[in-house]
Amino acid sequence: MQDLNQPTPEALEEGRLLFAQACTFMLGVVNLRGLPPMDQPEIVFAGRSNVGKSSLVNALTGRNTLARTSNTPGRTQEINFFDLAGRLRLVDVPGYGFAQAPKAKVEAWTDLVFAYLRGRASLRLACLLIDARHGLKTVDDGAMEQLGRAAVPFMVVLTKADLVRPLELERIVGAVRGGLRNRIGALAEPVLTSSRKGQGIAELRAILATYAAAAERGVSP
């Protein structure tokens, strides 16, 4: 079985080629009725507010302004779909947990995100983003539980890894591995990334390209 976390040179090149192609904003939706048809494989980027989802989408696609970023938790308030070369949809969803927005609005978009995760047959993989400075939080357990119930495979992507000292990062990675143990649908090994410095971006592109290729063949990666 291929180790997705240690992509071959060929897989890295496939990832580079895929993400070098045109990636365009499709639409943003605020309720389930607005979702596009399930005619392309989708990869969703989920995580706590201000964890760096939009920054990661921009880093993967090499476009600084494709997804709107902000230092204010809760800036993304709808499910945003991006079309990557007609082969893959990247989905940027509102963050869960704390956000600088009214509580009722936060609860509404959190419910929307989890409803999307539960009911999307075209969803091939969830990238669950975790701030490497803080590791897994209780609120992340709820997200992993939802993904497990929906039978959605997911991988933890540790963001902002460049901001953590090596020994502390090693401790956090170990704790994340432990938190993923026995989780339904979890890929056992987290991916370390830094959108600012490019760490792990080529490897993550390769992983996502593997899912795109597998969807085209109608098989699992």
Automatic annotation (TrEMBL):
UniProt-listed GO biological process terms: division septum assembly
InterPro entries referenced in this protein's UniProt entry, alphabetically: G_ENGB_dom, GTP-bd, GTP-bd_ribosome_bio_YsxC, P-loop_NTPase
Occurrences of domain EngB-type G (ranges): 39-214
Cited SUPFAM superfamilies: P-loop containing nucleoside triphosphate hydrolases
Keywords on record: Cell cycle, Cell division, GTP-binding, Magnesium, Metal-binding, Nucleotide-binding, Septation
PANTHER family referenced in this protein's UniProt entry, alphabetically: ENGB-TYPE G DOMAIN-CONTAINING PROTEIN, MSS1/TRME-RELATED GTP-BINDING PROTEIN
Family as reported in the entry's similarity comment: Belongs to the TRAFAC class TrmE-Era-EngA-EngB-Septin-like GTPase superfamily. EngB GTPase family.
UniProt function note: Necessary for normal cell division and for the maintenance of normal septation.
Protein name listed in UniProt: Probable GTP-binding protein EngB
Organism in which the protein naturally occurs: Arboricoccus pini
